[in-house]
Design brief:
With 272 residues, this protein is α+β, with helices and mostly antiparallel strands. It contains 4 helices and 14 strands. The strands form 3 sheets. Strands 1, 2, 3, 5, 6, 7 and 10 form a 7-stranded antiparallel β-sheet that branches. The relative contact order is 0.14.
């Protein structure tokens, strides 16, 4: 009798387990469908943004940046896509107090930072727009990294935009593809990004534009920002794994490898 009783108990237990497993699998399936739907929506948005910027919109974007205090020579030195990226983040209602920019370049890549100071509810805050631009075509950016950090006495403003937009261009300046990246790592001082797409293709080259908001915690905090771009020149068979470390001292690379080409600079900005 005891044996039969156990058998009768096992069947309901197995039935319950089967129901639970079915529910879990259904949730996983639904989640997969939801992710796929979101990816399809993102692809649609991306394809819509792949269109070149028309002349009227470009002039409108330039006017927004000029009104925020951007010098003509800075606008002349950055691409139309970067102008559009910055202008979309510049709110017309904000009163901009000051701006500064800094650029350094190597044989292969140019890295810049543009910074605006403004007031938000009586508090002085800063918008930083770091960027990179490949100066030669045919270089892929898959497994490359991009990071930036303010220094001690500063902090990132949480909850504010922090994205990097990567644009694939041809030498004719035709926009081929746009992808938005979210940070893979962050601290109170800055953000790090890793690019999962971007193979080398003929005369294509890549640009990327980031944005983040910061403020001074200490009045005497130094106006210094570190910006680093790392290019992974290894083959697909080597599979190098590394990361960027973000702290009050700046940006550093977690791996020392001859296959990782580092472009790094500490910039002292005069923005007030």
């Amino acid at each position: 009798m005891k044996k039969n009783k156990k058998s009768r108990l096992i069947l309901p237990v197995l039935l319950i387990i089967g129901i639970i497993l079915s529910y879990v699998m259904l949730r996983i399936y639904d989640k997969g469908n939801y992710s796929e739907k979101k990816d399809m929506e993102a692809d649609k948005e991306q394809s819509d943004s792949d269109k070149s910027i028309n002349k009227a919109d470009l002039e409108r974007y330039k006017k927004i940046l000029l009104n925020a205090g951007t010098p003509d020579e800075v606008l002349a030195d950055i691409s139309d896509e970067q102008i559009a990226f910055i202008a979309k983040d510049i709110k017309r209602g904000d009163i901009y107090k000051d701006m500064d920019s800094f650029e350094f370049e190597d044989e292969l890549i140019s890295v810049t930072i543009i910074c605006y100071s403004y007031e938000n509810n009586g508090e002085k805050q800063y918008k930083f727009f770091p960027s990179f631009r490949w100066l030669k075509a045919g270089y892929g950016i898959e497994n490359d990294s991009f990071g930036f950090a303010v220094h001690e006495g500063w902090e990132i403003i949480p909850g504010m935009p922090a994205q990097t937009e990567v644009v694939c261009l041809k030498n004719s300046f035709e926009v081929k593809k746009i992808k938005i990246y979210e940070p893979i790592d962050a601290s109170q001082y800055g953000y790090a990004y890793s690019f999962t797409n971007g193979i080398a293709m003929g005369d294509n080259y890549y640009e990327g534009y980031g944005v983040f908001y910061a403020r001074k915690k200490e009045e005497n905090g130094e106006n210094k920002i570190s910006i680093t771009y790392v290019h992974d020149s290894s083959s697909v068979l080597e599979n190098i794994e590394y990361g960027l470390i973000i702290n009050e001292a700046g940006v550093s690379v977690s791996l020392d490898s001859a296959k990782l080409q580092e472009y790094s600079k500490d910039m002292l900005l005069s923005v007030k």
